[in-house]
Amino acid sequence: MPYPLNTPLGRFGIETSEETRDRCVASIPASGLVNPLTGAPTLAPLAMLVDHAGGLINHARRAAQEWTVSSELAVEVAPGAAEIIASTPDRDVVAVSRPLGRKRAAALGVCELSVGAEVIATATVRSFYITVPTTLTAWPDKPSGSLPGTRLDELMAVEIGETGGNAALLVQHDDPVLNNSVGAVHGGVSSMGLELVGSAAINRDNAAQHYQTASLRVNFLRPFHGGGEGHYRATAIHTGRSSGVAEAQAVGRDGRTAIIARLTAYR
């Protein structure tokens, strides 16, 4: 099932082919997109797919009058994933998600991501259940909308910001198409932003072989709103011969930290 272009899922080409309480299957085109900060191919779209597929399996288990809010996202990327995606531009990345354990006040979904027959990542999304909000934005249910461009920065409505130091920064502009049903930036979009700045921070002074993202761990603390002072910012806390680690955060337009993440990458 494709989604309208004026929804977060439709803008990034996500399609859902199966949705039950026991298994969800979704896909995203990931080839050809680059990190606007580095110009290098990026694995950021994997985070968008994980947020959707992992969150969907948790959402499928909700009871009447329950809604889900994702609190954690973690992606473990297999070595060579970027090369596999680049070498098969006609194939989307497919995620298969299943529930892990029992549903309590929270639930855990586990995903396996593949390109064709090759598994390129595993991931988890943890969500907790709340009462259905009194105000939810109704998403379009018919084909509509148009894309703002083909580059990842255009799709995400971000631009490079100045830090005056060693941090990597992307400004998140306010774009209602990128918001979820409660009016905050979609969790998959913000997770992509954190991957982009984290990878850029590690590779800022790297003149040799590029560090490739190996893991991304995200904690959603509060709703993240773009516009104003909304931005993603990351700083490398370690860059060694073989690995690098960066800490990233999404700061809302009110100046408060809304999401934090840690990215690890290897040469």
Automatic annotation (TrEMBL):
| Keyword check for RNA-binding | no
Q: Which terms does the record give in the GO molecular function aspect? A: hydrolase activity
> What's the top EC group for this one?
hydrolase
Q: Which Pfam families match?
A: 4HBT
Signal peptide per UniProt: none
Give UniProt keywords alphabetically.
Hydrolase
Q: What is its EC number?
A: 3.1.2.-
Q: Where would I find the Thioesterase domain in this sequence?
A: 183-258
Keyword Transmembrane attributed: no
Coiled-coil region(s) at which residues? none
Q: What is this protein called?
A: PaaI family thioesterase
Q: Which organism is this entry from?
A: Mycolicibacterium austroafricanum (Mycobacterium austroafricanum)
